[in-house]
Amino acid sequence: MNLDELKQIFSPEDITTEPSALETYGRDWTKHFTPAPSAIVFPRKTPQVQELVKWARKNKVALVPSGGRTGLSAAAFATNHEVVVSFEKMNRVLDFNAIDETVTCQPGVVTEALQNYVKAQGYYFPVDFAARGSSQIGGNVATNAGGIKVIRYGLMRNWVAGLTVVTGSGDTLSLNRGLVKNATGYDFRQLFIGSEGTLGFITEVTLKVTRMPKDLTVFVFGVPELEAVMNIYEAFKKNFPIMAYEMFTDLALQYVTNQQGIERPFETKTPYYVLLELEKDSEETFEKAMEIFESCSEAGWIEDAAVSQDSQQAQNLWRLREDITEATSYKQPYKNDVSVLISKVPQFLTEMTNIIEQQHPDFEVVWFGHIGDGNLHINILKPDNLSSEEFVKRCKSVDEIMFTMIENLGGSISAEHGVGLTKKPFLQHTKSAQEIEYMRQVKRVFDPDGIMNPGKVF
Question: Checking phi first, is residue 86 left (phi over 0); if not, alpha (psi -120 to 50) or beta?
């Protein structure tokens, strides 16, 4: 590939073919793929991205977007000599408007940095997850990120008020411009949210913000059975706007306490644990929450509990859930995130657990998830005596069973991390053949040469 023309678009410090950079920027958190990009470029403004796309069209070069690279579907992998477009230098907050309650930023702004910026203005940006310290806003939009507050605030889609994008045709579009009401036909903004960079690149984002929540209180419950997890959810949900409702198993808790040096929340061991977060906007709210807790305990749904008394204790209790990924990483987990209707979570988890125990008794399976929105994370840990190749092969056989079950339950093969390369072979379990063909046609309109993150999604 001749990069001479590309060097006319980017300054020397904003383009590299250095091997370690190719390895770093050519991948995301997904394992089992090998990065092989030809170059990495670091645009700083929208016109540069537009020039880059026009260059790529002219030279028939594929482009792969790169944000914080925290995804788990290999959507940010460059495996076939593509040019990786890293947005980490497009990292400025451009505007804050208190009247409109919006903030506008470039795509490379780190999620936590944006949260802190908005907080300093007296507002709150609620899309939140464990990877907040490294994920970037552009990637969050491109994957329609969810996280731990979806039950209260919804997905990233609910907070995007406007986008600037450069399409695969090399056109720059300004979509919705932050408007609350805009009844003028097709909303292309929604097409680009969750598109994984296959239609074009996001170069500017306008996000809605909201008021800061009041005192957040975290409960952790020890729960004896899966049905009780749903009973507790129903009891609290009909009385409060729950901020978060998370579940994890005792095996997950064991890994966190052993690897992260965190103490158990209480001595009682139970098969399941629930983390519930509420906004304590008054003493009456807290008193009502304690009444519900006591009634759930009397019903046998809760065997033990811990309640945060201040923000530090709340943060410590959250670590029981948020540290699971880090605590299990050394076991080379094979990860999946899926979703079903909330009411069908117990059926899915029980049936899937039984199948794995019967067919792969040597597998340790760590379950956790955002039960309040039907999203479960399954982490199969590699046995020490298995090669990585054999382990992946056996996990893929689990995929076939699981995704068929998901299809029968009317669920989704990917709740949060997109399709990318990992879920591409199974898309038909969530989308019909007609839907997939319409998706292909949409891609051809925005990306006629097929250069935008090719090979991903379908």
Answer: beta
Looking at this protein, which amino acid is placed at residue 393?
A: K
315-350 pLDDT, tens digit each: 999 999 999 999 999 998 999 999 999 999 999 999
Beta bridge mates, 223: 272
Residue 399: CB atoms within 10 A of its CB come to: 17
b/e code 136-163 from CB counts within 10 Å (16+ = b): bbbbbbbbbbbbbbbbbbebbeebbbbb
- Stated as kind and residue range, the H or E segment containing 249 is strand 244-249
Is the confidence at residue 83, as pLDDT, over 90? yes
The answer to whether the Cα torsion of 141, 52, 43, 36 is positive or negative is: positive
Query: Is the sign of the CA dihedral 442, 444, 445, 450 positive or negative?
Result: positive
* Tokens read off for 261: 């040096």
Residue 441 exposed, middle or buried by CB count within 10 Å (0-12, 13-18, 19+): exposed
Q: How far apart are CA 240 and CA 255, in angstroms?
A: 32
pTM tops 0.85, yes or no: yes
Neighbour tally for 18: CB within 10 Å: 10
30 close to 420: Cβ distance less than 8 angstroms: yes
Token pair 């020397």 in the structure block, residue: 12
- 353-382 burial code (b ≥16 CB/10 A, e <16): eeebeeebeebbbbbbbbbbbbbbbbbbbb
Which residue in this structure is represented by tokens 């299809």? 407
The number of beta carbons lying within 10 Å of the beta carbon of residue 234 is 11
pLDDT at residue 357, rounded to an integer: 95
Strands 63-66 and 83-86 come out as parallel
Sheet strands side by side (includes 375-381)? 304-307, 216-223, 272-279, 244-249, 364-370, 375-381, 334-339
pLDDT of 2 > 90? The answer is no
- Taking alpha carbons only, the member of 77, 74, 54 closest to residue 449 is 54
